[in-house]
Amino acid sequence: MKKKLPMTLLVGSLVLTMLSGCGSNATQSSTPAAQPAGEKMELVTDGKLTFAMSGLLKPLNYKDSGGNLTGFDVEIGNEIAKRIGLEPNPVTNPWETILQGLKGKKYDAIIGSMTATEERAKQVDFTDPYYISGGQIFVAQTNDTMKTKDDLKDRTIGVVQASTYKEIAKKYTSKIKGYPSDVYALQDLVPGRVDAVITDKIVGVSAIKEQGLQIKSVGDVLEKENIAIAVNKDNPVLLKKINEAIKAMVEDGTYEKISVKWFGTNLLK
């Protein structure tokens, strides 16, 4: 992504500079399904889908107390691997070199909350999005007067200091309150110290799920970010099969179950 996702809720503001548990327990085959001629996937390790992430973005991808990779991205990757007949093999790589690692065939895919941008698409291919993020308006749960972005006019809006969301807020009001952290801004919604907060969608839904904040989102994301899986350009069969797996997961309800488990909501809606 442009890396605007939280490592933890207490350091939610870090997402503005970076962005952009448990895996499936189903028994998984270590042998790939037979591939028809012309339908061969190029894999780093036969029988495995090796997919990379930073491992630093809780609850998206992180290491638990036992040192095992877990999180939303991991569970999505595990389910995709199962559906295309492969053993899941999640690995970590520093974010700043994660694209180079993919192009260097260290792993087969990046399932690590990466925004599919035009610049990145020059280097790799992207699947259909497996979740949607971007700047989102949040208000107190009891606030029934703000229903669209137009209702931000002349309101007091909280944003993280020096974030790009400050520029968005300026389009609607001059009453802007800066905060050192997204979480502090969101916490000020309930007592009414600000009327609305603009922050990354994942930060807000995570605060609702993890902290139980009595807040809600308003409208659609202001600047939509499609978060997708990256694969090498010379691997069209893998790209196709991952897209088919994502589509099937959405259609049979598996995707929504995973999303609600980690965030309390469907991240594709």
UniProtKB/TrEMBL annotation:
The keyword DNA damage does not apply. Residues 48-265 form the Ionotropic glutamate receptor C-terminal domain. Gene3D superfamilies: Periplasmic binding protein-like II. It comes from Brevibacillus choshinensis. It is found in: Cell envelope. Belongs to the bacterial solute-binding protein 3 family. It comes from the Bacteria. Keywords: Signal. Residues 1-26 form the signal peptide. Its main location: other. Pfam families: SBP_bac_3 (PF00497). InterPro entries: Iontro_rcpt_C (IPR001320), SBP_3_CS (IPR018313), Solute-binding_3/MltF_N (IPR001638). The keyword Transmembrane helix does not apply. Residues 48-266 form the Solute-binding protein family 3/N-terminal domain. This is ABC transporter substrate-binding protein.
